[in-house]
Predict the 3D structure of the following.
Amino acid sequence: MSVGLEQAGAALAAESARMAGLGWMRGTSGNLSMTLQREPLRLAVTASGLDKGELTGEDVVVVDSAGAAVPDQPDPGQRPSAEAGLHARIAAVAGAGAVVHVHMLSAVVAGQRWPGGVVLRDLEMLKGLGRRDDDVMTVPVVPNSQDMGVLGDAFEAGFDAATPAVIVARHGLYVWGRDLVQARHRTECLDWLFQFTLATNGFQEGVA
């Protein structure tokens, strides 16, 4: 594997603790993944049903391109989130090395306010997403579904390689990057951008 499972588990546990501390992974919600290899696709995904602020490096599950746990697991008793299927779809379509799924309030509120997509423009923080500060980026919003195939199709239909995020309406945010650090940085930048856009809507011309 191009990334070792032990290394991936330690990194996922550390980032989960960081994001739980920011209030983005309340209770046992949210999940993170890292791509271990491409052919065949294998991801390390945080295990389901655990407090994301207290994960250890062993609290990961290896999944395939459908998000299903592969037979050869260090701990066969652990199971991945059902949302692992969308992580795998994003990794396959976007070529992501890591995917972050958090229940960030600013993203969910922005998706509720602008269900056709959240427009971010003319802000220096866009550089953190690989865009110019005078650029316009629309983060797509897709309807929530318990069927990861349906969510995956909605994600892929609106996929733009220059926009590394998608909001699932009334649920949460998926962000991806070449590695876990870039995915985290992009998530942090998006939180700021969503908060700014929500706070200035109504008195700053052109943000809506």
User: Anything to note?
Assistant: DSSP finds five helices and nine strands in the chain. Confidence is low (pLDDT under 50) at residues 203-208. The radius of gyration is 16 Å.
